[in-house]
Amino acid sequence: MKEEIKRRLQKNETWQRGFYMLFFIFIYGVSKFLVIAVMLFQFFTMIVTGTVNEQLLKFGQNLSTYLYQITMFLTFNSEQLPFPFSAWPQGTPNQKYYLDES
């Protein structure tokens, strides 16, 4: 049993994923502040103009999808590395980020 654990601890892939996870935890925290900024800007835009900013609406959707991709990676539901290691998401979440259990 101890040999098996020792072997797992010596695998480069394990440590590499750990470093990616630390990186994305940091990005996730920064992104939460961006969500708050988008929310506040949209709220004040709605008050001033009566409509939401369409470009910011699309960015908000993409940012939400990005946070979803990060969460899927951090919870081991995906092996796909989110942006900047893949393309910036466009639109709603893609099914490719789910692990295929069929």
What does this structure look like?
- This protein has about 100 residues and is mostly helical.
- The chain has one domain (about 1-95).
- It is about 65% helix and about 0% strand.
- The protein has three helices and no strands.
- The chain has helices at about 1-10, 10-50, 55-75.
- The longest helix is centred in the N-terminal third of the chain and has 38 residues, at about 10-50.
- It is elongated and about 65 Å long.
How far the N terminus sits from the C terminus, by CA atoms, comes to 31 Å
Query: What's the overall geometry?
Result: elongated
Q: Bin the helical content.
A: 55-70%
Mean pLDDT: 88
Outline of the structure:
By secondary structure, the chain is mainly α. It has helices at 2-9, 12-49, 54-74.
Please write out the topology.
Blueprint (H helix, E strand, L loop, with lengths): L1 H8 L2 H38 L4 H21 L28
Properties at a glance:
mainly alpha
